[in-house]
Structure formats: C-alpha cells, structure tokens
Design a protein that fits this description.
Helix content is 26%, strand content 28%. It is α+β, with helices and mostly antiparallel strands and 97 residues long.
Amino acid sequence: MIVDLVQVKEGKEECVNPRKLHHYLKRYHNDMYTSMQEVFTLIGLNTVNKVVNSWIVGLGGVNSCIVDPKVVFHHLLKEPGVVGFAVAHNHPSGNLA
C-alpha cells in the first residue's frame, strides 16, 4: 500500500546529522517508533538542510516495506525548495538484519 500523506510543511528543523534527523522523526513522525508495521518516511530538505516537507511513502508488514522509487522522486521533484532528502524506516520486528 502506498500512502501519500503530507505531515509537516515549512519546518524549522535542521537535519544536518543523524541525531537531528532522529529528533525530527521523534517529534513529527512518532508513529514510526510505535507502529507494528514498517513505515518508510521521506524528508525533503532545502539548501541549508532544513525540512521543507515530509511524507510517509510506504507502509508494510512487520518485516518488509515496498517503496516505489517513482513515488519518492515524484514528491522530491514537485516540491518547491527541495534540493536534498533523507529517508528513514523502522524495524517493528526488532530484527536489524
């Protein structure tokens, strides 16, 4: 199932390192940390790595999530101001392999 939900627009959060990205996700996408499904999140960044927008672009089961690259690049290319991106997903099964 592909989900197209805009979560945050024109954020002031900087995602310049993994710790700041984690803080952003905990604040605005906390469902990734409590979900029993895999959640794949796309974060669009501007030239100074501040969040322009973010989307949940994939939902899966407990051990997999299919993400269509066309959906990812569609969001990135149509959103004004996005020049970079980060992605994140969870492991509800606890298996990191």
